[in-house]
Design a protein that fits this description.
Length: about 850
């Protein structure tokens, strides 16, 4: 045997080995696999054979093996070991090898792998190849996976092919140029001269790709956008020829000439005409022709009409053209195809703000879409319906939307309820309608409403003074029917606690009054406390309502028993609430009527949420007895806004006014301990009501000292009020730690022969001041000047402005209630300087 024996042996052995199976046979074999494991075993066996063939540098079957590898890659199996074999095929002189090699490169390679850079020279050579099909392969590969480095190196060859007369290469070069621009935007100007001539091409493929290239350049560069606006007449002419041309079998799709090119031109016109009057004017006529002459019986025509509508809405088109576009969308709503209806609803939702009246014409069709079985269409129809609500149609639209709320799936209820609340708040024709609508939502979908719906409704009810009797009666009936909707139960409990006396009086003019007794009302509220359906928050509302009824009903003993029972509740918050209310009954019963007075009208300052209320002449934390009330601050005094009105309403700062103990208190210390730590150097902060839990009356118990050290200020006293035998003297002191705080002590004396009982002193100051009114020494002013009632006021005046004050005096004299308002402007200069 010669020296070449081993090589000869291997070559002969290779000749005797069977040829690898063809791709078609591999596909047929894999499809016979009954299980995933069996298929995996076949793939692994074939991959092993392909690896062996690659190692042996078998050029004969490399193309076949790479083709099979690409099929396995499409099935999801790893095929990365064939990347270098693809490069070898690309370098081959055979077209069949190049075709599989370039296909493999596009599937197996990307710019994240350095291997792709080895292709650059091969692609450059093939771009200059004498055969157009090889050039086409190179253009396709570069346009598919070329990196920024490859695009920079090969952009010159692409630009040359863009200028060639061969339409086959020009359309591929245009698409490749799009990829180059995306990767390297600064090369955009290189393609500008060649791009100008592309629109004069008759070949539709070149026209299509040139429009794509123009669109890409306009979207990426404002300068290019301005430059290409002069091509609008040419684009309009091309589009007009497409519409007016007769039947062309080469480009016809369902009776329409080249709809793909039409859609592309419409998109480019939309970009060119946006925010430009001249361009928009030039394309108005052709858009009207497309909108009126396009066949709508097939989806092809609908696609063109949809692009036409989008173009009309984006450019500065005429009003008549915009109405035509909206009417096209209205016809889409009647189409049997769900996708077309969805597209129409989405488009109308985008245009409803700018063309509201035109969209309103299709309101009935839009409302009918609420009954569609498709959830996506129902959601879009619901959103569009809320966008169409205005003051003229609010009653009819709300009727339809409430019907939808009754029957819709749970996933829609939260959004629908929120939409109804907002629309009712904005367009309600009357307060009764507003209250009825919100109550209807709470009855239907109470478990799905937003957290702020309860305080918002409470505020609405509070501000609708003339509707109190009607509202509390409606809510009481709702409680008798259903207690499962917790937000409704919470609002009903609050209203019964506030307006229970109106419920008993039967003075409801809006509807036939119902006859109920105190025991029946208390039975309902006690039932809420014991119900398993009630949440802890709802129980807090119910217990607070029962407590408030102790000043409106005569069944005080029964209420005391109920409150005392829950003093040992396992719910800590309910227990704390009951303990606090027990303390009111036992230790502070004289304060209970003032603390549990009816809420005044609330001043709303937020659009969609709990409102801030200006506090006047109220207790330090009177809102504590209102379970989860919407206002962060409440005031129990009757006609509490009077003092606000005296000083112009908005020019008044919060005032904290305390109630009167029956026995003298050490500078108001008892009430301070009861109501928490009050800041004595500034205004009492408005207690924020948490969204999840109602506030407590005795939160923040404190034993801090009532006053800082007080030094005599040498300020002369003054007479603030002297009328009907009642005299109010002011004496002044200055607090040591803060010289800006003036401490005013009032001395009330009575020169008549009869004592003055139930004496209450209230005060208000402008916004630039901060005032704190502490508890009085007594609520009885003795007759014949045999004693006096003292009360301390602390006023913070940081700007050293002249002090002004309005006071309100309320008392009972000889069995008759007396109320008087007065202004105090003659404060000594030493008190405020």
């Amino acid at each position: 045997m010669s020296v070449d024996g081993p090589s000869y042996f291997l070559a002969s052995l290779r000749r005797r080995m069977p040829a690898p199976i063809r791709l078609r046979e591999l596909i047929r074999t894999i499809r016979t696999a009954r299980t995933q494991a069996e298929e995996r075993e076949m793939i692994q066996k074939e991959c092993a054979a392909i690896r062996s063939s690659f190692r042996e540098e078998d050029n004969t079957y490399r193309c076949r093996n790479v083709a099979k590898l690409l099929y396995m890659h499409m099935l999801g199996y790893p095929a990365h070991f064939g990347q270098l074999e693809c490069l070898k095929l690309i370098a081959s002189q055979k077209f069949t090898d190049k075709r599989i090699g370039y296909l493999g490169a596009m599937l197996l390679l990307d710019e994240r792998q350095d291997v792709h850079l080895l292709m650059t020279n091969c692609i450059k050579n093939d771009l200059n190849h004498s055969t157009q099909y090889v050039q086409g392969l190179a253009l396709c590969t570069l346009g598919c996976m070329g990196s920024s480095e490859m695009c920079r190196d090969l952009a010159g060859e692409v630009e040359k092919l863009l200028k060639t007369s061969n339409s086959y290469l020009r359309k591929k070069a245009a698409l490749c140029a799009v990829h180059v621009i995306r990767k390297v935007p600064e090369l955009m100007e290189m393609f500008l001269p060649a791009t100008k001539n592309l629109l004069s091409e008759k070949n539709h493929g070149v026209l299509h790709t040139s429009v794509v290239l123009l669109t890409e350049m306009c979207e990426r560069s404002p300068d290019m956008l301005a430059h290409f606006r002069k091509l609008v007449p040419q684009l309009v002419r091309i589009l007009k020829n497409l519409i007016m041309s007769g039947y062309s079998p080469e480009h016809d799709v369902s009776g329409i000439s080249d709809p793909f090119l039409q859609v592309r031109i419409l998109r480019l016109l939309r970009i060119l005409g946006k925010s430009d009057d001249d361009s928009s004017e030039a394309m108005n006529d052709i858009l009207a022709q497309v909108a009126t002459n396009t066949e709508t019986s097939k989806n092809v025509g609908n696609a063109i009409l949809y692009e036409t509508v989008l173009t009309i809405m984006d450019i500065k088109s005429e009003s008549g053209l915009r109405v035509l576009a909206i009417n096209i969308l209205g016809r889409f709503l009647l189409n049997n195809d769900k996708n077309i209806r969805y597209v129409a609803l989405t488009s109308l939702l985008k245009t409803v703000q700018t063309d509201h009246n035109a969209v309103q014409r299709h309101r009935s069709t839009i409302v009918d879409c609420l009954k569609d079985l498709d959830v996506s269409i129902k959601r879009r129809a619901m959103e569009l319906s809320f966008a169409l609500v205005n003051g003229n149609n609010v009653r009819g639209m709300m009727k339809e939307l409430l019907y939808f709320l009754d029957s819709c799936d749970p996933e829609f209820k939260a959004d629908c309820a929120s939409g109804v609340f907002l629309a009712a708040e904005k367009y309600a024709p009357s307060k009764r309608w507003h209250i009825d609508t919100v109550m209807r939502v709470l009855t239907t979908a109470g478990s799905y409403v937003r957290d702020d719906s309860v305080p918002n409704l409470i505020q609405l009810i509070t501000n609708s003074v003339e509707m109190h009797a009607y509202t509390v009666q409606r809510l009481y009936k709702a409680l008798l029917d259903d207690i499962s909707q917790q937000p409704l139960v919470q609002v009903a409990s609050w209203c019964i606690g506030e307006y229970g006396d109106l419920l008993l009086s039967g003075q409801c003019e809006e509807e036939e009054p119902i006859q109920v007794t105190e025991d029946e009302v208390l039975d309902v509220l006690e039932g809420l406390l014991a119900s398993n359906l009630s949440t802890p928050v709802t129980r807090g509302y119910s217990l607070t309502a029962i407590m408030k009824l102790s000043t409106r009903f005569s069944s005080v003993n029964r209420i005391k028993k109920v409150v005392s029972v829950y003093g040992s509740s396992i719910d800590v918050e309910l227990q704390q609430r009951a303990v606090e209310y027990n303390a009111l009954f036992k230790k502070y019963d004289h304060m209970r009527p003032a603390l549990l007075e009816r809420m005044p009208i609330m001043e709303k300052t937020a659009t969609n949420g709990p409102s801030e209320i200006v506090q006047t002449n109220g207790e330090a934390e009177p809102s504590a007895v209102e379970a989860k009330h919407p206002p962060p601050v409440a005031q129990p005094a009757n006609q509490a806004n009077d003092l606000l009105d005296l000083l112009g309403g908005n020019d008044v700062v919060p005032v904290i006014q305390t109630s009167m103990p029956t026995k003298p208190a050490s500078a108001g210390g008892e009430l301070l301990d009861l109501l928490g730590d009050l800041s004595l150097s500034g205004p009492a902060p408005a207690p924020s009501v948490p969204s999840s839990q109602p506030p407590f009356l005795l939160d923040g118990l404190s034993s801090q000292p009532l006053f800082n050290d007080i030094a005599p200020a040498g300020i002369p006293p003054m007479i603030a009020y002297n009328k009907n035998g009642l005299k109010i003297d002011f004496t002044f002191e200055r607090a040591n730690p803060n010289p800006n705080v003036a401490v005013i002590t009032i001395h009330a004396t009575n020169s008549t022969e009869s004592e003055m009982t139930e004496f209450v002193f209230q005060a208000a100051v402008p916004k630039t001041f901060q005032l704190q009114l502490l508890s009085p020494s007594s609520n009885v002013v003795p007759a014949l000047n045999q004693g006096s009632v003292t009360q301390v006021i602390r006023v913070l005046n940081p700007q050293k402005q002249q002090l002004r004050m309005r006071i309100k005096l309320t008392y009972t004299h000889k069995g008759s209630p007396v109320q008087d308002l007065s202004e105090v402007n003659n404060f000594p200069p030493q008190s405020w300087q």
